[in-house]
Amino acid sequence: MTSSPAPRPHDQSTYQVRLEWGPAGLARLAPSDVVVVVDVLDSSTRAVEAAAAGEEILLDRLDPVVGEIARVAGPDAIVLAAGLVNARAVAEAVLAEQTRRAGRTSVAIIAAGELVAPDAADLVHPAVEDQLGAGAVVAALGDLGIDHTSPDAAVAAEGFRALRGAVRHLLTASGSGRAMAARGERDAVAGAAVHDSAGVVPVLRDGGFRPL
Predict the structure, then answer these.
(1) Assigned domain for 6 exists
(2) What is the SS3 string spanning the chain?
(3) Which CATH number do you get for residue 197?
(4) Residue 118 pLDDT > 80
(5) Which GO terms of the molecular function aspect are on file (predicted)?
(6) Residue 94: its pLDDT value, please?
C-alpha cells in the first residue's frame, strides 16, 4: 500500500488560505486552485484600472515579478490581481469560484514585493504596501467565511486590521511610495491606498489581465 507523501514544512498545504512572497514563495507552496497576485503600487492597481475601463493589460507591460508569478502559477490555477482597492471584490470572486466548484477551494495570496536586483525576477524582498494589500485580501476572505488561514496569512490579515486607519500614511511613507512621489506620482500612491474603492477583478487569460 502506497502512502501519500508527507507535506513539506513550508508548503502551507494543510491550510485553505496561504500567503507567500514572490515567485520563489509561490513555488514553495502546495499547488493552489486560485493564485492572487498583490502588487499594490504597480501592477495590481494598473490591472484594476484597465479592468474598470473594460480593457486588457498584457503581462509584458507589468512588473516582471508579476509575469514570473504567473509563470510559476501554471496553466491550471486561476490567477487574479488584487490590491487594497479591490480586496473585497477579489474575496467575493474566490467565494464564487468555491461555490461553483462545490468544494473547498485553496487560495495562495502572493505578495509581489520589491526586486532585489533588476535581472532577478524571482528574488524579492518584502514591501510594506504589498504586506498590507495581501492582509486586506485575507481579511476580506475571512469576513466571507473563508478563514482556514495559515499563520503567515493570519498575521498579514491582523496586521491590516490593526493598521487599516493608517494605510494611506504607511503607503506614502514607504520606500516605494516615496520613490513614486519623487517621480511626481503622489496622487497614484494616494489612489492605490483607498480600500475597496473598486468592484472589478482582473483575471489572467492568454497572457493578459482582463475583467473577470
Answers:
(1) no
(2) CCCCCCCCCCCCCCCCEEEEEHHHHHHHCCCCCEEEEECCCCHHHHHHHHHHCCCCEEHHHCCHHHHHHHHHHCCCCEEEEECHHHHHHHHHHHHHHHHHHCCCCCEEEEECCEECCCCCCCCEECCHHHHHHHHHHHHHHHHCCCCCECHHHHHHHHHHHHHHHHHHHHHHHCHHHHHHHHCCCHHHHHHHCCCCCCCCCEEEECCEEEEC
(3) 3.90.1560.10
(4) no
(5) 2-phosphosulfolactate phosphatase activity; magnesium ion binding
(6) 99
Domain assignment present for 2: no
- Take residue 151 and report the three cell numbers written for it: 499563520
149-158 per-position pLDDT tens digit:
999 999 999 9
C-alpha 146/C-alpha 98 separation (Å) is 10
What the block records as the C-alpha cell of 40 is: 499594490
Q: Which amino acid is at 166?
A: A
How would residue 125 be classed by pLDDT, with cut points 50, 70 and 90? Answer: confident
